Description:
Number of domains: 2
CATH topology of the largest domain: Rossmann fold
Largest sheet: 7 strands, parallel
Shape: globular
Number of strands: 13
CATH superfamily of the largest domain: Glycogen Phosphorylase B
Number of helices: 15
Order of helices and strands: EHEHEHEHEEHEHHEHEHEHEHEHEHHH
Helix content: 40-55%
Oligomer: single chain
CATH class of the largest domain: Alpha Beta
CATH architecture of the largest domain: 3-Layer(aba) Sandwich
Amino acid sequence: MSNKKKLMTIAIAAEITPAKTIIPIIKKIKLLESKNKLNWENSKIIGLYHGDSVKNILSPFCDECFSIGQGRGSNKKKNSNIKLAYLIFKDFLKAFSAMRGKNIDLLITAGNAGDVRKSILAANFLHIPVIHIEQDIYNPIEIISHANLVTVPSEKYVSYLKNHYNLSNVINIGGYPMVSYVIDSIKNHKNISKEQILSENGLKLTDDYILLVLGGDLRDNDLERLIRVCESLNYLIIIAPYRFDKHLVESLVNSSNINVLDNYVDLYNYLSNAKILIYAAGMGMTIEAGIFEIPSIKIKGFHKDHASVDLANDLNIPIVDIDDISHVINHLSKSNSKDLIENSQIAIDNLIDIINNFNFSFNKSGLSSTKKIWNQRKKYR
Length: 381
């Protein structure tokens, strides 16, 4: 008679980019279940999400999905501390309600946004153990101090989190699981040619182009200076505005060599056909730049210390101030993604082993770590 657990119920919580870190774990769990290689027979996956964009990414891999409120992005109006506390508590109740009575065995979180805070807090109230996959090493969310286990992509980050935040329950998994998600997405993606991209945007079919991606490392007052610098490069440039309003970006453009896309577009075709990538974003975009092996420039943002900066350095992607873009644009080389891909598979296997043999006696780091992380996060506000 089998001693296997009949059903393993796992809840996952993450915003868009961190969700791409968890999905390869879920896919591998399902594969190993089908081969009878885990300590349970079947799993039930419950997705906890902020907003429809995340739901759309998570739902194909989840048996059930529940909203736990709305994210509060950096471009939205800042709330007072009292209003913010009220909104967090309101969303915490949603997370608590979504998780209560579901017989959840484990919560897996990734990222450093409010969905992680509320779901871990609710899990603590419900006595559900937590694994947090940490990638934003220098600016984690304070509630990870109440996770049973925190994983990081390299050994140096184990030391960093222990020394700076007194986190005692940190394990190196050896890489970035999200890389696997990007590779699978590329394989399953319907490719279109550079000529089709240029034609659809009313551009000359003979031109190479630079793709400029505007992300979270830019402030509103950086935009005009960045566009002026790009106009001086004498290249055809396609801008993906993402977090910035398309009409605002268009209003700052004076050159016919610059074309602005809609706010949220499928970037893979634009990435695969670009001559050069310039981006002001974090870990997700850095991983994609590495996988596509595009000569790239990462704009130095207000996050001076960031794991994506470390990864960009590893991938030989220069990190420069806006005014220095023209100095490096003609001296770029392709990244080598071999180690990135191999280490991603190692990380996924290590995480599966942790989940399959999870030690429920792991002690949480506690309030002293919470305070240290909270004080660090003040620097990014």
